[in-house]
Write the structure tokens for this entry.
Amino acid sequence: GAVVSQHPSRVICKSGTSVKIECRSLDFQATTMFWYRQFPKQSLMLMATSNEGSKATYEQGVEKDKFLINHASLTLSTLTVTSAHPEDSSFYICSPRGQEANYGYTFGSGTRLTVV
Amino acid sequence: GESVGLHLPTLSVQEGDNSIINCAYSNSASDYFIWYKQESGKGPQFIIDIRSNMDKRQGQRVTVLLNKTVKHLSLQIAATQPGDSAVYFCAENTGGFKTIFGAGTRLFVKA
């Protein structure tokens, strides 16, 4: 159980463009979605938390207008990096959580974003 | 904000030896702790977890110890194998909400 699909695995985009990352929970309903960012040789830092059908809650220092999160369904959430800049280059990882999934939280396989 | 820290950023062990990875956490209200393994370019993979009402939990070749008095976690890997080489993160969770990660320890297994 708790199968997560995250796409794309890698993306290269030009500075100023937007990139959308998808995260799907394949065998459970994700009532909550956590989005993390990981810079090289660093830990995962929580960016935002979203509940299905509600606006996301962003961690301190994360720009909500830059990192748009949509969680319109219980199986899909998207993170859009708008007007991307080289400093946004990072590894983005989703972690969906369902009401039944109380243990061993699952993560997506991550998206390596490179902004050139 | 709150963070979970690690004592050792890198650990090198001989194949077949036991590995011990340590972690200190800061939030005394955390009630659930998880160890993750992350290989290069991949998302974190669940290894083992422990709730705050326990002080030890064993899995296959892995054991997690929790010392709430000093807010310390450790992950013990028995008979370490080359496939265990990765970065290991401890993570804490409070009340089933968001999970906060520690800094990570890179484990090198020498053949």
